[in-house]
Amino acid sequence: MQVAPVTFDSFNALADEEAQQRIREARARLGKRAVILCHHYQRADIYQHADITGDSLKLSRLASQTEADTIVFCGVHFMAEVADILSRPEQVSILPDLAAGCSMADMASLAKVERAWRELATVLDPDEQVTPVTYINSAADLKAFCGRHGGIVCTSSNAPKILDWSFGQRGKVLFFPDQHLGRWSGHRMGIPLDQMPVWNPDLELGGLTPEQIRDAKIILWHGYCSVHQMFQPAQIEKFRTKYPEGKVVAHPECSFEVCSAADVVGSTETIIRTVKDSAPGSRWLVGTELNLVDRLAREVQAEGKSVEFMGGMVCMCSTMQRIDPQHLAWCLESLVAGQVVNRISVPEHEAQLAKVALERMLAAS
Ligand code: 13P
Ligand code: SF4
């Protein structure tokens, strides 16, 4: 007789300490059968249980290499999808709370990107002239779109290399969903800003003229991260005035003005490495999500380094935050009982094409 899955309801009211204890017990019973992957933005009460931590590129590489039967992904939806696509067919990918999405990823949908492709076809031949590049922060069907149209996936740590690859295929790029990462990476390659117009999917022909499209090198989707767009150049100016010897590091999802004013721009992994490798006593202003910055500040405090958060107010990735000890305890105890809850399973036809675009990325980076 099949046992009905335990619902989350009975875990919802667990006190944090009890949930933590049950996570520890379930992990001990699961042993190497389950691996917990954690993105750097995870809250501290989840991060402490990670087997592996990393940025999106590192986590997607490791998801393809793990031997565990089950990958419990403490991150957001697209990350668990990537784990499912890159892992072996018998492996299972779990997202502890299905509501942990990425608001930036939701800014581009397959229907809108397909419409853009059709509209571009009224000006040029996109399948001959445009490489579609999707930031890994996107749904699996958009990765599949890139796989189908000779395109590729990128992350915040390999975007310039991926653009190089893309221009080796065709003369133009359609970059979605994050305009900031696309613009900054294009700028680093020497592409003038006026050759990187923004495609607004709510307007006919993206709000562009046929000339703008013909002149463009990179057409940037009108998407952004609501966490990273909170950071302002004025916060950097204030810091520099107060601490002329201080350094600034920012994530490339920040605006062009913030990236231009920073000393270092890079992925979450790069940000952590940069601060950790700096000289004892260094002072840093960091433009990325608060959980990462708080953790980093604590970790380097003993070396006399000071790490300050760029935002004037609390700015966390609210969707990442949804993965809490109660949800993790529920998923792990269910696994102990032989039940899989919150499985992320990308349909086979989509997964195959998305894998093509992801493997192009892994090979090119
Ligand atoms: P990283 O790949 O740098 O970890 O970035 C992921 C992300 O979502 C940043 O907002
Ligand atoms: Fe998405 Fe922004 Fe959260 Fe990163 S910080 S997962 S881009 S909403």
Give an overview in words.
The protein has 365 residues and is α/β, with parallel strands linked by helices. It is built from 17 helices and 13 strands. The chain has helices spanning 9-12, 16-30, 44-47, 56-63, 77-86, 110-120, 126-129, 140-148, 159-169, 179-188, 210-215, 233-242, 256-261, 268-277, 290-300, 325-336, 348-364; strands spanning 34-39, 52-54, 70-74, 92-94, 130-135, 152-154, 172-176, 198-199, 218-221, 247-250, 264-265, 283-287, 306-309. The strands form three sheets. It has a five-stranded parallel beta sheet, sandwiched between helices. Strand 12, helix 15 (290-300) and strand 13 (306-309) form a beta-alpha-beta unit. The radius of gyration is 21 Å and the shape is globular. The termini are far apart. The model has no long low-confidence stretch (mean pLDDT 96). It binds 1,3-dihydroxyacetonephosphate (13P) and iron/sulfur cluster. Iron/sulfur cluster (SF4) binds next to loops.
